[in-house]
Amino acid sequence: MNTRQLSLLLILGPPLALGAAESKRITLDEALRLAEASPMVRILDREVEHAQAEVRATGLWPNPEVLLSREEALGTVDRLETLSFPLPLTGRLSLEKSAARSGLVAAEVRSGFALVSIIRADVRESFLDLVAAQERSSSLRTGLSRLSELVEVLQAREKEGESSGFDRMRAQRERAEIEADLLESRGRETRPRARLAALLGLSSDGLVAEGHLEAGGVLPPFGEVKAVAASRGDVIALDAEVERAGYLAKAAGRRAIPEPSLAIGIKTTEVDGVSGTGGVAAISFSLPLFDRGQGSRAIARAEEALLRTRREALARQVMAQAESALAEAIARREAAGAYAAAGDPEELVGIARAAYEAGEMRILELLDAYRTALAVHLRTIDLRAEARRAEIELNRVLGTEIVR
């Protein structure tokens, strides 16, 4: 085996032979399951837990206060033991509790939206990029193998005087071009493989994506897309945030209402060794002369207006993105379908090979048929990958996996 043959074996062999025992194959479903345990998902879970803790910590009544006092003057001793209960009867605490619950809804909806539109979409896109890169390498590997066989045949014919050196040299030049393309293609697999491995918390060594580039399910009509876009997670989260700010503004307004505090207890008086005990009851009110919640209320109202404006702007943006994403997904599918309907390029190769064997075609025309067939295979991969990528982008824009 000469150096050239060994080089070709190393190029053609590892993906199928040498690396088979060390490859780590993963399907898209397995990748998505692994993504559920990624650090980003844990961050989303912690944000929801934080909002849940705020709900538990908000709306609690103030703690009662115990007063113990002793006064002594001119032989008289007074002892006072009272228990004071603040009574927030204005509804302020209930409103603050409702605000916390709205914050929890926002956190949960935002977490679900991020899971689909960021984490799962990133995994799908990285998986798709790796599958496309692998298929490109496979097509180039097939093309290189075909050219290598042709070169061997031409070398044998040249020795027997049945073929010219030009045919052999031209085929070798074509083989070198494909060989370079294959080496570049295998290098391009590195980035999506590393990105997918990072998203899943795996090692990228030997990672192989087992999947296909076929289109997903039926694309939804625009009316359905509009309805889904209107209820996108981050839009609903802003609705909940607006509601939260409104509750906080109302709660701040209740601070202008005096809140009572009830105190009950026992008073003991001792004079010259004689003591007497009686009950004590008192009620007091806070006087909101200076702090009537006006500052907190103004801040909450300003935040509510800001969030409402953001919500309106986001809703318009989402609708425009959804319309363009659907249009692109449709166009990409149509392009891939139209290209595939043009026929099988292998028929062209068969005709050219037969014509060359019969002496009716020159080597350049045969190589052109090989080159055309390979270009069609690579273009088909690119078009299918772009169609799938457009579907993923549609899911990302809508915040739900409407196309799988």
What does this structure look like?
The protein has 404 residues and is α+β, with helices and mostly antiparallel strands. Helices cover 66% and strands 13% of the residues. The strands form two sheets. A four-stranded antiparallel sheet has the order 2-3-5-6, with no helix packed on it. A two-stranded parallel ribbon has the order 1-4. Strand 2 (65-73) and strand 3 (76-86) form a beta hairpin. Helix 2 (28-35) packs antiparallel against helix 4.
Largest sheet, strands/sense/barrel: 4 strands, antiparallel
Shape descriptor reads elongated
Number of helices: 11
Global Rg: 38 Å
Helix and strand arrangement:
Elements: H1 3-12, E1 24-27, H2 28-35, H3 39-57, E2 65-73, E3 76-86, H4 92-159, H5 165-188, H6 190-200, E4 207-210, H7 222-230, H8 233-253, E5 260-271, E6 274-285, H9 294-340, H10 345-357, H11 363-398
Parallel strand pairs: 1-4
Antiparallel strand pairs: 2-3, 3-5, 5-6
Helix pairs in contact: 2-4, 3-4, 4-5, 4-6, 4-8, 4-11, 7-9, 8-9, 9-11, 10-11
